[in-house]
Amino acid sequence: MAAMLRTTAGVHRLHGADFGENSEGGSGDGDVGPDKHLGWAMANYTIARMADLNDRDIALFFGRIWMDDGEDFHIGRRHIRDERNDPLVLDWRAPLSEQYYRASAHDRKDVAKRRRFGFQGARITGFEDENLLLGEAVASEILTSEIERPRTGPMRDIVATIQPEQDELIRRGAATNLCVQGAPGTGKTAVGLHRAAWLLYNYTEKLDKAGVLVVGPNEGFLSYISGVLPTLGETSVWQVTVQQLTGAHTATAVDSYEAALVKHDARMALVCERAVWGHVGTAADGGITADDGLLIADGGWRWRLGLNYLETAITNARKHTRTYTAGRKSVEDAIVQGARRQAEIRSGHSPDGKWATKLKRAPAVQAFLDAVWPKLNTKTVMKKLYGDAAFRADATRGILTDDEAAHLTAAKGGKRTPGDLLIADEIESHLKLREPSESFGHIVIDEAQDLSPMQCRAIARRSGKGSVTVLGDLAQGTTPWAAASWTDQMRHLGKDEVEHTELTTGFRVPAVIIELANRVLPHLGVDVAPARSIRADGSLDRIRTADLESGVHEAVAKALAEEGLIGVIAADDRAAALRPLLEGTERVELVAASLAKGLEYDHVVVVEPAEIVEAPATGGGTFDGVGLRHLYVALTRAVSRLTVVHAQDLPAEMEA
Question: Is residue 153 predicted with pLDDT exceeding 70?
């Protein structure tokens, strides 16, 4: 390990110096030396690598396998080699490590024996061996204790506890679009993050250039998962909320509930398309008739393009170009080509590029283009859509009702709402292509069931030809536009060829808690299988109280007697009222029910389920079942113990 650190430091010094020398302009065109871009890349890589090798708080390995041929390998979070460059520890993402995770007594995969190590930080606390040659499955106490280990902060990696079914999903090829429906506690978020790390390791050349993006529902969720990928040695992954990705976090106004429904609706994509492409006219709009074509003055020459030629040019541009700006250029090029042919016939030679540039600037050409394919930008289209009633009526006719279209109006002072920024993003996509640097080779999308069709489309535009890993649970959809099916959601994300899978085996949430949540599941109106848990531990308590604050205080005091992090989850208004009671209490986090999704706590105190069920959706509106879904989420955040505190009767759905 020390030798690898010394080698990495040497590489850093070499390339850092070379980059500095080249950056100062010391190398001429004829000099022979390292390329400065390689130097920059290597210098930056080695910084992260040295930090990785210096991390002494993480166990270097967690497993070992002995193969049938006598070879043996340690498996860990990073590769380590000896002075002869032979591997001492294999990275968990290496192809051979797959056998460590998937070998079983019934399918050994050439593995004779497997050893699991127990650790406290970087210190070995024990180990256990599994002789696969005996053909008997043996439960692992180390694996169980690691899965059940108390939470003390943000999400951890699961490299030591990856299950065979999780490993299969993590190691899908880079071209695979993967959609994972996962019940609570099945590890879908961990699968997505570890898949990102695995892809970067095994498709380095492709994804280092194209990049990997993780999209989460909110900043609290991103904070919770932020340490996982760096622990796995990946620091180049950009992690953002969907609001940050679309610019919605910069919005200075807020939509009404009804306006938000319209602006997030899939039909808005058609409105935006019509608002842009509806500007395309006909040759007649440019003053062209069958008798009078387009007359272009070119010095002493005159070129004339007829009605049929120009109509064909417009039709072809509309049919074969992906963006409005490209379409205008296509018509412009067709005009130049038509004039060029006439010039070649008359003069016997083909005009050069300067001639073409000059011809494009001819007043007659510009006037024609402005009439049939006017220049546009996003601001212009938005202003017309929101401020011109006649234009808005044309753009929305047959798509939105009059009442719905009325919500497409500018806020006071020209301020933009999150919905406005989504519409602007959609409009811009029709005007011009995104820069290649704005697209990613792979995008991991968590809690994807809550994305609106318009948010999905915005993400799809940043995926381009890349692939996606989509994670979520339809039962936990709590936005007004939550997905009803993954097929529709993947279509909005622009992916037709998709591998769908469903995770139902829970590793994190004990069975006694899952069974309570499963009582609520049939009332959520979604077609998903109930979860089952492999964990027989855990506890479930109920506290009926006349005074909620006293009940919460009692529940938290009992929870603090045990190890781990405690989450107190209540309806949003109730959470605000409880804040003074819990402020400053160590190991306790107060969470509004609407923001609890994706989080985990050792002990969860759910406060007044009836209030959670009755609370309105974010934004002030309401829709059937949103409160029950918030309750389902709250009940499934505990990985060890759950306490339900209530003064009112529990919802009937919990008693079924």
Answer: no
3-state secondary structure of 187: coil
DSSP state of 439: -
pLDDT at 291 over 80: yes
Residue 573: which region, alpha, beta or left (left: phi > 0; alpha: psi -120 to 50)? alpha
In terms of Cα–Cα distance, which of 73, 48, 76 is closest to 62? 76
* Rounded CA separation 214/241 (Å): 8
Out of 320-324, 535-539, 647-651, pick the least confident.
535-539
- Give tens-digit pLDDT for 166-201: 999 999 999 999 999 999 989 899 999 999 999 999
Average pLDDT over residues 91-119: 93
All residues at 6 or more sequence positions from 281 whose CB lies less than 8 Å from its CB, including other chains: 314, 371, 372, 373
Q: How far apart are CA 45 and CA 440, in angstroms?
A: 20
Cα dihedral 293, 299, 300, 303 in deg (nearest 10): -20
Task: Give the pLDDT confidence score for residue 347 in this predicted structure.
Answer: 82
* Residue 415 CB contacts under 8 Å (≥ 6 apart), including other chains: 251, 252, 253
Query: What b-and-e string marks burial along 348-363, b requiring 16 or more CB atoms within 10 Å of the CB?
Result: eeebeeebbeebbebe
Helix/strand/coil (H/E/C) assignment for every residue in 365-420: HHHHHHHHCCCCCHHHHHHHHHHCHHHHHHHHCCCCCHHHHCCCCCCHHHCCCHHH
